[in-house]
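From the shared-data thread, chain only:
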Amino acid sequence: MAVRGIFKGLTGAASSARNTGAGEGAGGPAVIGPGDSARRLQVLDEFERAGIGWIWASDEEGRLIYLSDNAIDTLGRAPSEVLAQPLIALFETDPDNPDERSDRPLPFQLNARAKINQLVVRVIGDSGKRPARSTWWALSGHPLFDEGGRFLGYRGSAKDVTTEYDRKIVDSRMAEYDALTGLANRHRMTRRLESILAAYRNAKRACALMMLDLDRFKYVNDTMGHPAGDELLRQVAERLRSIVGNRGEIGRLGGDEFQIILPDLDDRGKLGELAEKIIQILSQPYPIDGKRALIGASVGVAIAPYDGIERDEITRASDLALYAAKNGGRGQFRFYSSDLKDEEEERRLLLDDLREALAADQLKLYYQPVVRTQDHVVVGFEALMRWEHPERGEVAPEIFIRAAEESNLINQLGEWVLRRACEDAAQWPDSVRVAINLSAVQFNNNGFLALVTEALADSGLAPGRLEFELTESVFMGDSEQTDRTFRALKDLGVRLALDDFGTGYSSLSYLRSAPFDKLKVDKSFVASCTGKDQNSAKIITAIIGLSEALGMETTVEGVEAFDQFHLVCSKGAKYIQGWIYSKALAHEDILEGMRSGEMRIEPNGPEKHRSERRSVFRRVGVIHDDHRYDAVMRNLSKTGAMVEGLLGVPVGTGLVLDLGEGQLAVGVVNRSEDATIAIEFETPLVSNGAGGLCTRHRVSPYALAAAGMPLAALPPGHYPLANAAGGPSSKPRFLQVTSSPNVRAA
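Structure, as tokens:
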């Protein structure tokens, strides 16, 4: 159809500029009059030829009935391939429009017969495929109706905006993606999370959010320089991409903080496995400028809608979980739970209290014996710090030492331990050594060597009786400085032990370059060495053999039962440190045991190592049919629990344990005696990252809302499965008895 026919009606409505004496006959410009259609069409033709813009039109069925010749030429297609085609078959709206990201794409606006105003669309090539190079047009159009209101189609204009739009895309990417790593930045991650959560609320779907923080990154930056730190972040980003793949979107929020959005994932078993894999992979050494940087990672996990349904709720929940993971020790993950406090504030208060405890001499050293298996004689002790807080009670060393390592307090704490341990050990027989755990921060402190020399001189302890236990973290800094410190310590005469051997990634290279006197087999291998999987036993054998080949001693940690004891001894273990001999002792007890000279301890413990069953002593709910009973859970493992408080429960009864916060564990009674029952779970529990256990899934808040509860983040408490609507209930089958009051509320 010719442009004349299409625009006949439109040109007839053109401006009817009046001749006011300034017209052509009066020496003024030639004015196009209301009846001069030919001149108006000439102007339109000149407009199209000039490339200022193009004209298009569609019919009532959305088919393109006119498009400027120049526009058809830019498409590289014949007019017959363009005209009479549906407009939406030629163009698509860009979902990542940097201008608006409109939720009203081209098909929506055409169907609504709405006015189209400078809508940027992407040209679709032949056969519906995008061309190799994207071409962008800006479409404008007005719907046309006849006098009876019947829709006649669109009349509009178009313009090629590829150059400008490509520039906007680049600018948009720079505004939404991190220039260093190429990952999404904080702005994009915030927008994506808000969008996903809004859509998932309507669809009643779940979404997990992981917050990651790199451990010891600042140390790498300080010792190896900022360019090395930048390269490290780039390598971290690549590793995260390889781990997460297309399961979620990864962002760098700034510094060494990362975030991962994982849609449709609420299985805490899978999330825990993913978090552990991230921690494991990110903790492998990074080659940078011929050196090796070693860092770690901490991960906090929150899941919508269980831990929040708004962006700020779920973000705060994952932040709290991350702080808990960082303060709980290196290389850990945590799931959010409602009892988490503001860990950053808790850490600050903890450090304040620790400073006071150090100044007031409230800290104590206990010593765990290292025993020679041949004759059960004590040959040394490992110094272990203890802190009994007047209000908090006993604070776990991994908590307050971790906090101290992130502040300058670790050097003061380390100096106190070194001086006290040397003073105590000087009172022991000359054949007994003392071992002190040394952090990377202390090891790389400029005044460390002078401090060791001074502590030995003041106490009178022979250097050969002092042993420093180090982990691989000491190798993450300047390798030349590390080698100098090693040489200086050996020149001084002290002993060096590599702790947690076998759990790292490059211990063999460290053994080649560092002058260690001893390897310590990590207790994680001992804990599983008597199980069905014999790999741990083989690893213990290999470590002992390697140590002997290198002329080093080996101490096996964590031996608690006789089956472990006999196994490690059969593998060649000559020194053992574990509860089968003794827990950590006070200095006074050691002096008492050494009155006769040497100290001998006979092994004493259970015959077989038993997988850890945690004593929990807390109130839980037991659900059977449409009744919920109150009971006390005495212990808990991955596969079951022991519960007290119900009489008359037959073996084989199916029950549901309400563990709180929407955690329902389905199980069967496999032992029943008086008011105590043992329940075997249908689905094993999973680690919560904090040394505890949790269910893989929780009751959805949407299901609770359907039962009459408000849709919100789950509060603590119980959630009955049946009779939510208040219908008739059956008689309870079991008798609930009073449980011990010495338990905490669930």
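DSSP finds 24 helices and 33 strands in the chain.
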